[in-house]
Amino acid sequence: MIKLSKYLDIFCATVSGLCMIAMIGFNFADSIGRQLSRPLLGAQEAVSFLLAIFFFASLSLVTRENANIRVGLLVELYPAGLRKAERVFGALIEALCTALLVWMVFDRAARLENIGTLGTHYIVPLYPFVYAGALLLLCALVFLGERALTHHRRPSRPESPRGAHSVPQKKK
Amino acid sequence: QTDLIFNSYLPPFNASRKAALTDFAAEIEAQSGGEVTITIPDSTLAPSDQQYEMLLDGVADMAFLATDDLSQLVALNGIADLPGNAPSARAASVALWETYREMFKSAGEYKGVVLLSTHVLPGRQIMGLDDPIDSAESARGAKFWVPNGPLTDVISSLDAVPVHTNFPEVFETVSKGLVDALVMTPGSAEAAKVLERTKYYTTVPGGLGSVSFAVAISEERWNALGAEEQAAVLRAADGLPGRTGSALDAADAQADMSGLTVLQSPANLLEALTPEMEAQIAGWKERATAKGIDADAALAFYRSVLARETGAN
Amino acid sequence: MVRIPFLRKRSKMAFLIVFGTLVALITLTRIPLGFVMVLCGIGGIALLHPRGFDAAFSIAEREIVNLAMNEQFATMPLFVMMGVFVVKAGLADDLFGMAQRWIGHKRGGLGMATILACGGFAALSGSSTASAATMAKICVPPMRDADYDEGFSAAAVAAGGTMGILIPPSGALIVYALLTEESIGELFIAGLVPGLLQLFLYVIAGGIVARLFPLWAPAGPVFGWRDRFAALGKVWGVLALFAMVMLGLVFGIFTATEAAGFGAGGAFLFSVARGRMSFGVLAESLREAARISGMIFLVASGALVLNQFVNISGLAGDLVGGISNLGLSPFHVILCLIAFYMVLGCFLDGFAIIFLTVPVVVPVVAALGYDLVWWGIVTVIIVEISLITPPVGMNVYILKAMLPKVSIMRIFRGVMPFFVMDMLRLVAILAFPMIALWLVEFSR
Ligand code: NA
Ligand code: NA
């Protein structure tokens, strides 16, 4: 699981990074091309495809690095026992939500496939991009599994500074 | 008692919104004696190009479906979008509706929904900004703002440059001098706040092309309605194409044309436009034939209703 | 349209249940905010929609996947990328170095230099927290060496950092644009003048502090002219990049997305030219941009799902009706909304405020006839203030986390002068909406 998760992490990071570079490239080329009366037709649509892949790959990375925005205003005031209960409960809900999200993206892809929606410039079906996004998001579940497995072994992370509720937690 | 969700992506003061949405909804409630009620969400439940699948998913029960968003699924109703086929919104809306009922309905497009009405925007014309577009020469090399779709080809066929931006950015496009002419009606030009910047208005009989809409209800919901409820909805929808078309024409007629020089159907320009316009009609015929329709008969029928309605205007 | 009474009743119940659950989950648990919003949105839609969960999932999926494929939203990750590259290229250090050499030797000068550098960094980064975190590392040590009051120096960075979401590019404005369907470009243009006003007022605040409390802000070391011009020469790139992005937007050469792509590409080339780019740095930068973007994407998805719940509940419309029945003048309603936001801003901050309130508040403001671009700027100013006000002020906490020895009370005390300036600025923008709107009108 841990090894798999390491590979998937590299995979997601590579995909998301390449999409980012491509998006920069398309926009750069289009904005300059238009000044020279040579607009890159279809750049917008290409960016929208890349964006879908980028976001779902990135969302998996967010899960892996445990970097989601959290609030939990009152959690710090809890006694130790309650705090632990909250942690277990929160982790459980988070895992369920992630699974739900993965299912929803797959379901959306299936709906797009059924109805046969095509892009307006490149007349290609949209659903493969959404399936690809869903598969990338599936990696998030592996990362959550890894987190659950390693949690008891790793020395507990120092608590966030008092009050720094929504500071994304960087994994060291 | 039944409540139907009627979705709309149109802005609040849109002419077709009042006729085909709010007034229509009120009429359904009145005709059914309050047995059928309509809920209109404050804002749209899905983007404009996803209205059809939104109906199929049961997220909303009723909605407007634009033909240009369904071009992959629907060919026949595109008859009203063809060059020359929308002399007025009212005539085209009525003609499309009668042709649909007479000849298209049985072909089974619009799977999973039932059409209650259709309407068509007034045919697009040419608005010249500083110079008149009245001949093939004046159009050559000029930049024309066009909506996405077949009009791009019509303009290209004049050796002119089609430029497309989203409708909200038309003002910006014009004020930065990026185009020489617009392919739209005076009413749209006024809505885009560019009418006072145009000087010339070149008319093309029946318009260079248009967009048509269907008012649809999900088939599943339709079948779930009682016979009396269905009858009430149909009574409310009776004459709706004409009413919506008239509202669209009226909105267009409100544009202040005092600053415009009108160029009535310049022969030289029309001649240059003809080959591509005919190609578009031939293309539609091909698609219609593939759907098992007698395309020539449908076109003749559509035009006969147009003639009747424009004569009656 | 007439709604059936029972749906109306259910709407109010559902609204109480959904927002009650939402508040409970975000205060009592640390479940990611985006998930909480998605869950509550789906639950709420299912409660109200005749087709229950079927419709709820269909709507939620559509919102999330449409957002992921929304070309306009590409603006967000691209500007995030630009900010990351700018830091990696060492431009943030150069900004402070320049300001320090020119005015650091004056009394309070290092404080003012901090504000100026924060303003410059804000022109390249769309995030307030990133601005505060980045500038803290750069600005605080020199001020410590010059014997600045630690609370005040931390406060200058915390307050200066808030400019990140007002001076374009701004993540907060992108999200506001997305939720209200306003133009990202126009909102950016509208943020420019109020952002510069903030910069100006903060510099004045620094000057006043130096005069009133000389011990808080003594003079820093003096640099020679040669040094000063050398430092100036290093920052031209920052200024050029920002100028190109802004001029492109104002004159309509770029769409907002292209401006972002251009900015990210430009910042990358810059860091290459500086010799700061290597394969390792690139990979690290891409990963960082992905992490920040993914995190915002999830919360934005949640907000859009919740948005559809508010839409179906018809609540915004009811609220508009209810408020008009109160017989308040539109401006009084605006003042009430601001008071509500200020209270909320004490406990919540940043994106959470925008995500949670915009769907309900903006229809009210629109119905009153106010310009939504202007209101976007007002909202962002209030969010900025929320970042530095107790008890929960994100930027202050970031500084506290980076300077564990400084007491949080001292930072909040140091924030006071900037807070006063913020209130002045808020009053100014309420009294003179043109501060935000004139450049927009010029660009139209
Ligand atoms: Na900024
Ligand atoms: Na606060």
What attributes characterize this protein structure?
heterotrimer, A: 172 residues, mainly alpha, C: 444 residues, 2 domains, 20 helices, 79% helix, globular, disordered N terminus, binds sodium ion, transmembrane (chain A), TRAP_DctQ (chain A), TRAP transporter small permease protein (chain A)
What does it look like?
The complex is a heterotrimer of chains A (172), B (313) and C (444). By secondary structure, chain A is mainly alpha-helical. Chain A has one domain (2-150). Chain A has helices at residues 2-35, 43-64, 80-115, 127-151. In chain A, helix 2 (43-64) runs parallel beside helix 4. Chain A starts with a helix and ends in a 21-residue tail after the last helix. Chain B has helices at residues 15-31, 51-56, 89-104, 136-139, 151-156, 170-175, 186-191, 219-224, 227-237, 240-253, 267-290, 295-312, and strands at residues 2-5, 36-39, 62-66, 113-120, 126-128, 143-145, 161-163, 181-183, 200-202, 212-218, 261-263. In chain B, helix 1 packs antiparallel against helix 10 (240-253). Chain C is mainly alpha-helical and 444 residues long. The chains are: A mainly alpha (172), B alpha/beta (313), C mainly alpha (444). Chains A and C meet through helix 1, helix 2, helix 3 and helix 4 of A and helix 1, helix 2, helix 3, helix 4 and helix 12 of C. One sodium ion binds next to helix 15 of chain C. Chain A: The complex comprises the extracytoplasmic solute receptor protein and the two transmembrane proteins. Chain A: Pfam families: DctQ. Chain A: InterPro entries: DctQ (IPR055348), TRAP_DctQ (IPR007387). Chain A: Keywords: Cell inner membrane, Cell membrane, Membrane, Transmembrane, Transmembrane helix, Transport.
Strand content of chain A: under 5%
Whole-number total of structural domains of chain A: 1
Helix content of chain B: 40-55%
Task: Determine the fraction of residues in helical runs of chain A and give it as a percent range.
Answer: 55-70%
Helix/strand class of chain B = alpha/beta
Computed structural class of chain A:
mainly alpha
Number of strands of chain A: 0
Q: What's the tally of helices of chain A?
A: 4
Order of helices and strands of chain A: HHHH
User: Based on DSSP secondary structure assignment, what is the total number of beta strands of chain B?
Assistant: 11
Q: Kindly report how far apart the N and C termini of chain B lie.
A: 40 Å
Report the radius of gyration of chain B as a whole number of Å. Answer: 20 Å
Mean pLDDT of chain B: 90
Largest interface: A-C, 69 and 72 residues
Keywords (chain C): Cell inner membrane, Cell membrane, Membrane, Transmembrane, Transmembrane helix, Transport
Transmembrane segments (chain C): 35-53, 73-92, 112-140, 152-179, 199-223, 235-254, 289-310, 322-344, 351-368, 374-398, 419-440
Domain TRAP C4-dicarboxylate transport system permease DctM subunit (chain C): 23-434
Function (chain C): Part of the tripartite ATP-independent periplasmic (TRAP) transport system.
